[in-house]
C-alpha cells in the first residue's frame, strides 16, 4: 500500500505558495466539501492546497479541479473503500494502520520533491494524522465543520 505522489488537477496547479495538505474523512461529502471550500480560500491567499484522499475515493469521484493538487493514501481497502470492510470498527482500525504509513510516505515524498508540507489540515475523525505529522515535524491542525441540520 503506497501513497501516490500528487498530481496537478489542472494546468495551473494551485496557488504556488506553501504546500498545505488537506485530509478529509474518506468519502464523506459533509466532511470533504467544507475542506475544499477552505482550500479554495487558502489558494486565494497564495497557498497551494493538496487534497489527500484514499485510492478508492479518487477512483470513484472526479478530481476537484483548480486550484487543487491531488494525492492518494491507502485505507487498506483500495478496491472497495469502507463498503468492502466487514464493519466500521475494522475499517477505522485498518485506515489508521495503513493510512498512517502511507501518509508518512506522502509527507516524505513531498519534501524530497522540493514541496515540503508546511501544514497538514486533517479531519478530527482521523486523529492519528496528528501523530504522523508530529513525527514528521509538520505542524497540523484539526478542521472542524458543522452540519446545517438545524437551519
UniProtKB/TrEMBL annotation:
Transmembrane segments: none annotated. GO terms for molecular function: quercetin 3-O-glucosyltransferase activity; quercetin 7-O-glucosyltransferase activity. It comes from the Eukaryota. One of its GO terms (biological process) is detoxification. Belongs to the UDP-glycosyltransferase family. This is Uncharacterized protein. It comes from Lolium multiflorum.
